[in-house]
Amino acid sequence: MTDALPTPLRASLLEGPGFSHGFFTRRGGVSTGVYASLNGGVGSKDDPSAVAENRHRMATCLKIAPANLLVPYQIHSPDALVVTQAFAERPRCDALVTATPGLGLGVTGADCGMILFADTEARVIGAAHAGWKGALTGVLEATLAAMETLGARRAATVAAIGPTIAQKSYEVGAEFAERFVEASESYAGFFADSPNDGHFLFDLPGFIALRLWLAGIGSFEDLARDTYAEPETFYSYRRSVHKNEPDYGRQIAAIALV
Fold it and tell me: pLDDT tens digits for 201-212?
């Protein structure tokens, strides 16, 4: 599967003059095999030259220089970093924010939440990677706080979550659910009974939405696409494990000030 050009998904809340964004699917790149075709993961075992070409195509789509598509070394942390210029070495964090024109901020995912932020009035943007751990420990709130240091206002900030593993596809054990309920009994509502005894189905996108609303976000949009259930369109870590595949590709979600 090698497509001519990427055709990313877009969120209506993030559309506006001077901004570009995209939730890139697995289509439109040059990678082959389990990585076919728009793998953006430098941490995968894919051919580095193929990943570089794929990211070049993404940057072109975003209307920025390839060197200015910035993606951190993600560690499932609650840490957000303000950036003002391109970096040579990827910082270890899970969110980036900027008010610098010409920079694009991206995060990778293959089931985890990829959230893009913008205050179009203040011209401040952000991108966050939120798996269950990052969402629970505060990466979304940290992203909004970092944006505020650059002049953004929470009430004027909008956010969108891209393709993420859906509740019907995300089975977890009892200890996982207990960790959330210990943090807040109200989180029990994000767990539904699984057909398998002692297991539950976790609503990660819904949990992310709640945390953003409680943090004071102005508006929020969920593209409501399940990475696990659409193998032709999205990479999925969990699906790769269930299929005994040797590795998996990564989607990229990115936003830029242009």
Answer: 999 999 999 999
Q: Could you tell me the pTM of the whole model? A: 0.98
* Residue type (1 letter), 215: A
Angle formed by the axes of helices 204-215 and 139-148, nearest 10°: 40
**CA separation (Å) from 129 to 58, 121, 138?**
18, 24, 11
Q: Cite the DSSP H helix spans in the chain.
A: 48-62, 132-137, 139-148, 174-183, 204-215, 237-242
As to burial, measured by CB atoms within 10 angstroms (0-12 exposed, 13-18 middle, 19+ buried), residue 236 is buried
Give how far Cα 176 sits from Cα of 32, 133, 136, 173, 190, Å. 35, 10, 12, 5, 12
Pairing state between β 124-130 and 219-222: unpaired
| Residue at 192: amino acid letter | A
Give the E-state strand segments of the chain in sequence order: 19-23, 69-70, 80-82, 95-98, 104-109, 113-119, 124-130, 158-161, 171-173, 191-193, 199-202, 219-222, 251-257
Rounded CA Rg of the chain: 17
Cβ(226)–Cβ(20) below 8 Å: no
The two beta strands, 95-98 and 80-82, are: parallel
- For residue 4, the model assigns a pLDDT of 73
- Dist. CA 252–CA 184, nearest whole Å: 31
> Domains of the chain by range and CATH?
69-166+203-243+250-257 (3.60.140.10)
Burial class (CB in 10 A: 0-12, 13-18, 19+), 105: buried
How many residues are recorded in the chain? 258
Q: Order the strands of the 199-202 sheet from edge to edge.
A: 171-173, 199-202, 191-193
User: What count of other Cβ atoms lies within 10 Å of the Cβ of residue 101?
Assistant: 12
